[in-house]
Structure formats: C-alpha cells, structure tokens
Amino acid sequence: MKKVYIETYGCQMNVNDTEVVFSILGKAGYERTEDIAEADIIFANTCSIRDNAEQRIWGRIEQFAIRKRERADVVVGILGCMAERLKDKLLETGKVDIVAGPDAYRSLPRLLEAVLPGHPQIDVLLSREETYGDISPVRIDRGGVSAFISIMRGCNNVCSYCVVPYTRGAERSRDPRTIVREACDCFREGYREVTLLGQNVDSYRWKDGDGGEVTFAQLLEMVARISPLLRVRFSTSNPQDFSDDVILTMSRYDNICRHIHFPVQSGSDRILEKMRRRYTREWYLERVRMIRSVIPDCGLTTDVIAGFCSETEDDHRDTLSLFEEVGFDSAFMFYYSERPGTIAARNYPDDVDIQTKTRRLNEIIALQNRKSLESYRRDIGRSFTVLVEGPSKKNPEELCGRASNNKMCVFPDSVHKAGDYVDVEVVGCTSATLLCRLAE
After folding, report:
1. CA angle, 354 then 355 then 359, to 5°
2. How, if at all, do strands 98-100 and 121-123 pair?
3. What 8-state DSSP symbol labels residue 180?
4. How far is the C-alpha of 232 from the C-alpha of 223, rounded, in Å?
5. By Cβ atoms counted within 10 A, which residue in 82, 316, 372, 421 is the most buried?
6. For residue range 342-396, what is the model confidence (pLDDT) as tens digits?
C-alpha cells in the first residue's frame, strides 16, 4: 500500500477536508502516514486567505522538491484553496504533480493513477452540489476528544477583501440527516465535542423535495439532542445572518457551548460598506446586546482587519472604540493583505502604507490584550465544567481543557484523562489562560 502524508494549513474547514481526503484515499487502497520520510505521496492542503499563508506553501514546495530528488517516484500534490486560486501556475514550477481544488477530492485516486513523469494532473472544477455528505472522515485529532463536521460548503457573501467565494465556490448546505448521523458516529466513537463548520453557518438552509426546510437553529438543536454529554460548537457566524432563533436555541441546551465567534472586521460603517459586510456598526452592537441579554455568560471572540483600503484615523478609532465597548475575550487580528482577483483588488487601491497598517494593528492588539486580561480576571473565583483535552503543553503534571465559553483552563490533576468532564475553580489567570484547581 502506498503511504500518504498530508500537511494541513489554514482554517478548521481544511482540517475536516484533510480527514475527507484520507477517507477517500483509504477506500482506494492508500495508507495514511504521519512520517513524511516514508511517504510515497505528499500533499499540502492549503489556505489562500492571506499572502503569508501562500508564501509558507511555496517554501514547503521547495522542501518537497528535495524529497523528489532523493526519491524520483514520490508524488507531490497541492490541495485546497491555493490549488484553486493558482491552478496551472503550480504545475508550471515543475515541482508539483497534482493540483486539486476543494471540490475535486473524489478524483484524487484517478489523478494519482494518471500521474507520470512530465504528465502532472489537475482538477479544479468547482461544484454546486458537492458536500462530501456521504463520506465518513478519518479523524486526525490525536486526543480523540473534538471533531469537526462540515455542514455546508462555499460562500455567497463575496466580501470585497475575501478570496473564499473564488476558491470554494457557491454556498450549498448538506443534508441534515447525514450531519446528525456523523455526529452520532463521533459520539459513539468516544468524541465528546463536535464543531459544526461553514463559511457562514447562519445561512445554512436545507430544503427537501417536499417543501420542508431545516434552518441552522433547527440543525443545532438536532445535534444537541443526540446526548447531553456531547458538546456542540459552531463556526463561523456572519453578523448579518445571526438570528434570534440561534441565540434562543443556545440558551435552551446546556451542551451547546456558550461561545460565539463573531467576526466584525471593522468598527467603521464606511469601511464595513466598502468591505461589503452588509451590516452596520449599530446592527453588530445590537446583536451583541441580544446575545448578552439572553446568554449573559456567553464568550465572544472576533476577527478584525487593520488598514483596509482608504481607512482613515477616524475609521481606525471607530474600531478601537468598538473593541472597548464589546470587550471581546480574544480576537484574530491582522492587517489588510490584498488578494488577487477580489473585488477590492480590482477596484480599490491598497493605499494604507505598511507602517501605518502595522501601527494600527499593534494598537488593536494592545487594546485587545488589555480587554482579554480584564475578561479572564472576571472569571477568578468562578467554577466551570471543563472538557479535558490532555496534558498541558507547559507542564505534563497539569491537564488542560476548555470551558463552555471557550476559555482554556489548566489545572493540576493526576486522575482524569482526555474526554473526561471535570469541575474546576479559577484561582488565577493570564490574558489567554484560566489557572484552576479541582473544585471541591
């Protein structure tokens, strides 16, 4: 059996896609390996969301080429968003044998059989139907505690800065019965947490042939009802589509985690409109107020972009003031990276210089670090139920796991193991971790 090694970059969706690829190739007679040195086939499952993500892959392709020189029969392939975006440019390097986009993974066995020296293979056709809903992913989470389940693919929002609609295609939702079945399988196999994934989970809509419809709130409830011992998370939400029904469903089920990743991208209405985000600052803040009125202990995290096209100091101050007002637990913070082919790249000059972008980003980071510390300090003295993920990276005599609000907890413990639920009391914190002890 030929052995397949896959490096995965980027979002949680890519992790799930890698698990789908392992399943497809496993059924075709290939064997998974975690040792690149013994691999007959080397794949990189890639991300194109920012330029530095792609630059990392170009560097890895050079390393893969060294292995091909050592073993001429090694096959190198690029999968995912970078494959979809760059297509033939990857093959033109002469260092890549297979290029396959996110909707082409079923064709990988055929592409592998067809590869010959000097005859690379490519399949980057996007689909309006493909969801891989009938495939049981091969889980790669070593702890066997948390699993990712894709509920939909693609995106219809076409935010002006974003490459995802061009690399993952149009939005399509997966049959809810296959989602529930996959979640049941995960629970039966010992997983105690599933994360429902989509570029915009709030626009999930499944329509059957009889006119029936399942919304995201209804799907969330269906998965939550599998067992009270199965935690349910989801990502990512778009503020324009985030409904009261989702909030109320979360409030009714203790096993739906009290955490929402709620990307804002900017606090300025002018910039939000230019980004094609389809909501205003006030709409976003109203959604936050609604969340906190119904679920007061709900964790909130976000994404933000500093230095988008034409951003002024006033726009930047609007973002800082929104961060002050909301008080996120944590945030993914980046400065604007122009992506070829997007609406912004075609229509707006990237006119904020790198020094200004960096300064503004650092100001956001400094503010968020302060707000994170404030948020974590408020939890001192509180008790949480933690799902143990395994030993702490810094201290093997401590365990770590996340509370329902998604905050990481570490605590001394020599009794429990990964997959156990443990009650802890918070005795201290950093800006990113709750320091705990076992509750009495």
Report:
1. 115
2. parallel
3. H
4. 7
5. 82
6. 999 999 999 999 999 999 999 999 999 999 999 999 999 999 999 999 999 999 8
Quickly list H helices, 169-296.
176-188, 216-224, 244-252, 269-274, 281-294
354: nearest Cα among 345, 362, 366, 364 = 362
Cβ atoms within 10 Å, residue 118: 7
Q: Could you read off the pLDDT of 332-355 as tens digits, one per residue?
A: 999 999 999 999 999 999 999 999
Rounded Cα–Cα distance for residues 18 and 31 (Å): 14
Residue with structure tokens 């969301």?
49
CA distances from 278 to 161, 240, 241, 281, 344 (A): 13, 6, 10, 10, 15
Can you tell me the distance from the alpha carbon of 93 to that of 57, in angstroms, rounded to the nearest whole number? 13
- The Cα 401–Cα 192 span in angstroms is 12
Q: How far apart are CA 7 and CA 15, in angstroms?
A: 9
- Measured from the Cβ of residue 406, the count of other Cβ atoms closer than 10 Å reads 18
Residue 314's pLDDT is what?
98
CB atoms within 10 A of CB 76: 24
Is the pLDDT score of 124 beyond 90? yes
Which is nearest to 183 in space by CA: 198, 193, 172? 193
Token digits for 220?
A: 């969330």
Query: Cβ neighbours of residue 303 under 8 Å, at least 6 residues apart?
Result: 261, 263, 264, 265, 331, 332, 333, 334
User: Which pTM was predicted?
Assistant: 0.95
Q: What's the Cα-to-Cα distance from 301 to each of 199, 237, 248, 361, 375, rounded to whole Å? A: 16, 11, 19, 17, 11
Residues 6+ apart with CB under 8 A from 26: 32, 138
- Residue 290 CB coordination number (10 Å): 15
Find where tokens 């509180």 sit.
Answer: 382
Calpha distance 283→286 (Å, rounded): 5
> In the block, which residue shows the tokens 């419809």?
213
Cα distance between residue 36 and residue 42, in whole Å: 7
Q: Is the pLDDT of residue 226 over 80?
A: yes
